[in-house]
Amino acid sequence: MGSIRSDFKFNSFKVDKFIFNVEPFVELIEDQSVIDPSAWEIDFKIRVPSYFVKRGVYLGGLDIRLALTIPKEEVPERDKDLELVKLDAGIVGTFSTEERFADKAIEEKLVKFHIPTLLLPYLRSAVTGFLASAGFGNFIFPLINIHHYAQESLKDCNITIIE
Q1: What sign does the CA torsion over 27, 30, 33, 34 have?
Q2: Which of 51, 65, 91, 131 has the fewest CB atoms within 10 Å, i.e. is most exposed?
Q3: CB neighbours of residue 34 within 10 Å
Q4: Nearest in space to 65 (alpha carbons), one of 19, 114, 126, 12
């Protein structure tokens, strides 16, 4: 029977950014209902991965920004949209191999595309758990093809090599 062991190892992760702000908007604070998932603005950014030569470690991550906004037309006393809830969160992870990949195409694929794909569920869990504990009920993350997003957003980026 063949081995299923991978040479690419997921070592660790940390949620390295978590900034949360809620405006004291009475209607929002009193609202007990689950907020429609489509009301949230969601933005992702995949970090350019790095390779630390001396450690033989790849470092990669992603950031997410969530905002619940009321258009200025619905809040007459405001001259711009009101961000009722804003959450900025990020995650970073380390991955290693016995030695750097000889085939750069394999390295690019594993590092650029698989790192964010592996880290997203951990960030999703941290964000949804926090929002539930903060009184916002179940936040349903939309399904995201993070692999495709990584291909598009990192296609012109090179892995940063740190000696």
Answers
A1: positive
A2: 65
A3: 11
A4: 19
